[in-house]
Design goal:
12 helices; 5-stranded antiparallel sheet; 57% helix
Length: 493
C-alpha cells in the first residue's frame, strides 16, 4: 500500500512538522504500518529526528539516522496486540527539525504558509528573531516541493541549488545603527531585521507566502523610513514628519494588494540606505516628498512614481548644495588671499620702517653738512662732539624702534593666526574636517606665507642691526679723530 505522505502533513513550523494517518484494521495492518514508517523514514532529512507514536495505546518510537527494524517491529506488535474493537489505527509522526550549516528542512510549503498566516506580523518577526537572528542567512531546504525563491537572508530551494545563490548584506549592523539614530522604532530592541530580509528578489508561485513576505517587507520598511513607528500584532502605526505630518494606524492584513506598496517602500528604503554616508540627507528628502505625495494621507495609496520624485528632489538638493559648497570654497580662497595680503603688508610695512628710519638719520647728517658748509664755507668740523653724540643717541633710538617694530609685527602675526584659527573652527561646523583640510591644503598656504614673513623680517632685522653697528663704529672713529685733532690744535697753538 503506497501512501501519499505529503497529503498527510497536518502542521509545520520552523521547529517541527506533524503528519498522521488512519490505517484500517485488517490482516495487512502490520505490513501497512511498516510501509508507512519506511516512507516516513525516507522522507526525513538526516538533520532531523522523528518520533512515531500511537496516542490511543501510548506507544512511540524515536528514529534518528538508522532504521531500527527491531524497534519498529516491537512498536507494530504492541499496537496490534492492543487492538480490541477498533476499526482503524491512528499513527502520528513528528519531525523535530534542526538547523545544520545554516540549513533547515521545509517539508510542506503549503502548511508552513498556513502556520505563518495564523500568526500576526509581530509574532512572525518575534519567532524569526528567536530562531534565525544569529544566522547570517538561512536556507529552507524544500524536501517535497520544487522551486527556488529567496530574499537576501532567507533562501527557499532544493538542496541541489543551495550552493548556487548567496547574496550577503555586509553592512547589516551599520544599517540598523543608522535606523536607531534616525528613526524612533518602538520595538527596535526586539527587531534587528532589515526589509531586505523579507523582500523577495525572486518570488514564489505560492500566493500566500508572497503575501506574508510582502506584509513583512511593508511593515519593516516603514520602521526604517518613518520618524516614529510601531508594530503591534497586525497593526502598524507610523508618523512621517516632512513638509507636513502624516500619521496612520492600519491593519496590515486589510490590504487588498500588498505587492506594489511593499515594493515601493522597499525601493525607497533601499535607495535611502544604499550609501551610509548620506542617509541623513536622503531620509530627510524622502520624508518631505512622501508627506506631500501620500494620497488621502495613507500609505495604502502610495504612488509607484514617488521614488522618482524623491530622487529628483535629492538631485535638486545636491545641486543646491554644490552651489553652496562652491560658494564656501570661494570664501575660503578669498580668506586665504586676504591672509596672504595681510602678511605681505606686514613685510612691506617692516621694510618701510627700515627705510624711513635710515632716511631720517641720513637726512639729519646731510642737513648738518649743508648748514655747516653754508655757515663756515668749508666742510671741516662737521662731526663735532655734540653732533656725534646726537647721532649716537639717534642710533640708540633706532635700535629701540627696531625692537618695537619687531614686537608690533609679532603681535600682528598672532592676530592673523587667531583669525585663521577662528575661520577654521567656524567652517568645521559646516564642512567635513578632512574636506576643510584639503581646501586649506593642510595649512600649507598659511605656513608658506608665515615662513616668507619670518625670512623677510629676519633679513631686514639683521640689515638694520648691521647698518646701526657700522654707523656706530664710524661715529666712534670719527669722534675719536675729531677729539685727537682738537687736542693737537690746542697744543700747537
Amino acid at each position: 500500500m503506497n501512501i501519499g505522505i505529503n497529503k498527510l502533513i497536518s502542521y509545520e513550523d520552523h521547529i517541527q512538522m506533524k503528519l498522521k494517518t488512519c490505517l484500517p484494521v485488517n490482516d495487512e495492518l502490520s505490513d501497512t504500518i511498516t510501509n508507512f514508517i519506511v516512507q516516513v523514514f525516507h522522507l526525513k532529512n538526516k538533520r532531523d529526528s522523528l518520533i512515531v507514536s500511537n496516542e490511543l495505546f501510548g506507544f512511540d518510537i524515536k528514529i534518528r539516522d538508522d532504521f531500527d527494524e527491531d524497534s519498529i517491529n516491537t512498536f507494530i506488535s504492541d499496537i496490534i496486540s492492543s487492538i480490541d474493537n477498533e476499526y482503524e489505527v491512528i499513527v502520528d509522526c513528528i519531525f523535530y527539525k534542526k538547523i545544520v550549516e545554516n540549513t533547515l528542512s521545509l517539508y510542506s510549503l503549503e502548511k508552513y504558509g498556513q502556520y505563518l498566516q495564523s500568526l500576526s506580523i509581530e509574532n512572525i518577526i518575534g519567532k524569526y528573531n528567536e530562531s534565525f537572528i544569529d544566522f547570517e542567512y538561512i536556507i529552507f531546504d524544500l524536501i517535497i516541493d520544487d522551486g527556488c525563491f529567496y530574499t537576501k537572508k532567507f533562501y527557499f530551494m532544493n538542496s541541489d541549488n543551495k550552493n548556487k545563490i548567496r547574496i550577503m548584506i555586509d553592512d547589516r549592523a551599520e544599517i540598523i545603527d543608522k535606523r536607531d539614530n534616525l528613526c524612533n522604532f518602538v520595538g527596535a530592541i526586539k527587531n534587528n531585521y532589515l526589509p531586505d530580509d523579507f523582500y523577495f528578489l525572486k518570488k514564489t508561485n505560492d500566493i500566500e507566502i508572497n503575501r506574508i513576505f510582502d506584509r513583512l517587507t511593508l511593515a519593516v520598511s516603514l520602521t526604517y523610513i518613518s520618524n516614529i513607528s510601531n508594530i503591534n500584532g497586525d497593526e502598524v502605526s507610523y508618523k512621517i514628519e516632512g513638509y507636513k505630518t502624516v500619521k496612520e494606524i492600519f491593519d496590515v492584513k486589510s490590504f487588498d494588494e500588498y505587492s506594489e506598496v511593499s515594493s515601493t517602500l522597499w525601493e525607497i528604503y533601499d535607495w535611502v540606505y544604499s550609501n551610509l554616508n548620506n542617509v541623513s540627507d536622503k531620509i530627510g528628502i524622502a520624508r518631505n516628498i512622501l508627506s506631500l505625495n501620500l494620497k488621502n494621507n495613507t500609505i495604502k495609496d502610495i504612488d509607484r512614481s514617488v521614488l522618482g520624485s524623491i530622487r529628483s528632489g535629492y538631485d535638486i538638493y545636491l545641486k543646491e548644495n554644490a552651489a553652496r559648497y562652491i560658494e564656501v570654497m570661494n570664501q575660503q580662497l578669498i580668506f586665504i588671499n586676504d591672509i596672504n595680503a595681510s602678511i605681505q603688508k606686514l613685510a612691506l610695512d617692516f621694510s618701510h620702517k627700515f627705510r624711513n628710519n635710515f632716511i631720517g638719520f641720513f637726512s639729519f647728517i646731510f642737513t648738518t653738512i649743508i648748514i655747516n658748509v653754508i655757515s663756515t664755507g668749508t666742510i671741516n668740523n662737521i662731526f663735532t662732539y655734540e653732533i656725534t653724540m646726537i647721532c649716537i643717541v639717534m642710533l640708540i633710538i633706532s635700535i629701540v624702534y627696531l625692537y618695537f617694530s619687531l614686537f608690533e609685527s609679532n603681535l600682528s602675526v598672532e592676530r592673523i593666526k587667531k583669525q585663521y584659527d577662528r575661520n577654521k573652527s567656524f567652517y568645521k561646523l559646516i564642512l567635513d574636517e578632512q574636506d576643510l583640510t584639503r581646501i586649506l591644503n593642510n595649512d600649507s598656504y598659511y605656513n608658506e606665507d608665515r615662513q616668507y614673513l619670518d625670512r623677510y623680517v629676519k633679513k631686514y632685522k639683521w640689515m638694520w642691526i648691521i647698518v646701526v653697528v657700522i654707523l656706530l663704529v664710524f661715529l666712534i672713529l670719527v669722534g675719536t679723530f675729531v677729539k685727537v685733532e682738537s687736542i693737537h690744535y690746542i697744543l700747537s697753538g
